[in-house]
Amino acid sequence: MLYYLLYPFHDFHTVFNVFKYITFRSFWAFMTALVLGFVVGPYLIRKLSALRVGQTIRSDGPESHQAKAGTPTMGGALILLTATLSVVLWANVKNAYVWILLLVLVGMGLVGFLDDWLKLRRGGGKGLSARQKFLLQCVVATAAASLVLQVPDFSTELWIPFFKRVHPDIGAWYIPLMVFVIVGSANAVNLTDGLDGLALGPILVAALTYGVFAYVAGHSGIADYLQIRFVRGGGEVAVFCGALLGASFAFLWYNSYPAQIFMGDVGSLALGGALGTVAVISKQELLLPIVGGIFVAETLSVILQVGSYRLRRKRIFKMAPFHHHLELKGWSEPKIVVRFWIISILLAVFAMSTLKTR
Which of 47, 208, 250, 328 is the most buried (most CB within 10 A)? Predict the structure, then answer.
């Protein structure tokens, strides 16, 4: 919004030229979301506490988690609010990718909100059924995928990491691929969100990494030099990533151990879905399993656990997702969280290196 309100004044003073730069607006999108989060956060915690919007803890979960019962949940609404306001303020609101990303962020957030609200209303942690949740996620993801393909010049080519000239055009199959990436990412983040600050660390790393990917993909000169697909208008995705980064940092202030508030499905599904959409738009969807390696590992641990129990009546882990297995092995919660963050950073550095190894 500020781009259209203030940039036209560059004819009167050169200082207004800064509003055309994506790097400038990305930084201030980050700062705006961060400050809004710090301002609104305490009020939201007090309000949710007063409304008794408390987390329900699984009875079969680690014993150490029982003390967390009653901690305010659905705090992910703070991330949605601050990120959305910041994006509208600093991004180019005529850019289609900006609105598609907001559609996924808010749409997945609403699915998560409905699930969280039903859990609180019904008690016992029973929200939407797995089928209902998956169907609603697919509706949001399919809408986003259809809109992405309507953006002029968006390519249905699949760019393969490590290979310069391998980018097959998969045509209409790109829609189911996008739906798979968006829904898969949303659920992977949701499964990882089980310890104080655990999911937010990898989200911060991924948002920063994909902010860089989006910026270089949206810059014709850099994209040509790095031999990656140029995405016209894709640079604005970096502004969205900046806002997401700031909103997540602010929430982490209150969600770090011991957490004052949990983000719930309203936050985890929204962040995961948005991350998957960013990966698709920046044409780096195949790097998402690397950048989000922690999310992939957590998801695989659940799949392996369920599959092993159904086939052999034996469990591979003491409990799934994998972070609960480590807890039951005696690892402290802060140690698990920090080490998962370190792994996320290492994976992101490796993913960034692929920009030059093509």
Answer: 250
**Predicted local confidence at residue 281, as pLDDT:** 97
Residue length of the chain = 358
What is the per-residue pLDDT for 25? 95
User: Who contacts 308 (Cβ-Cβ below 8 Å, separation ≥6)?
Assistant: 314, 315, 316
Q: What Å distances lie between residue 167 and 220, 286, 310, CA to CA?
A: 18, 11, 39
- Rounded distance between C-alpha atoms, residue 245 and residue 39, angstroms: 16
Question: What is the CA angle 15-21-25, rounded to 5?
Answer: 95
The residue among 77, 262, 292 whose CA lies nearest residue 185 is: 292
Which residue type, as a one-letter code, is found at position 354?
T
Question: How does DSSP assign 255-271, residue by residue?
Answer: HSSSPS---HHHHHHHH
Does residue 77 contact residue 44 with C-beta atoms inside 8 Å?
A: yes
Identify which of 230, 244, 303 has the alpha carbon closest to the alpha carbon of residue 272. Answer: 244
Exposed e or buried b per residue across 245-261, where buried means at least 16 C-beta atoms within 10 angstroms of its C-beta: bbbbbbbbebbeeebbb
CA 306 from chain centre, in angstroms, equals: 25
Residue 120 has a pLDDT of: 85
Contact 314, 176 (CB under 8 A): no
User: Which tens digits make up the pLDDT trace of 64-103?
Assistant: 666 667 788 899 999 999 999 999 999 999 999 999 999 9
Q: Spell out the residues 6+ positions from residue 227 whose beta carbon is closer than 8 angstroms to its own.
A: 164, 358
Residues 257 and 337 sit within 8 Å (Cβ to Cβ) = yes
Helix, strand, or coil (residue 33): helix
Percentage of residues in the chain having pLDDT higher than 70: 91
Burial class (CB in 10 A: 0-12, 13-18, 19+), 232: middle
- Give the residue among 309, 46, 288, 255 at the shortest CA–CA distance from 159: 288
- Give residue for tokens 């560059």: 10
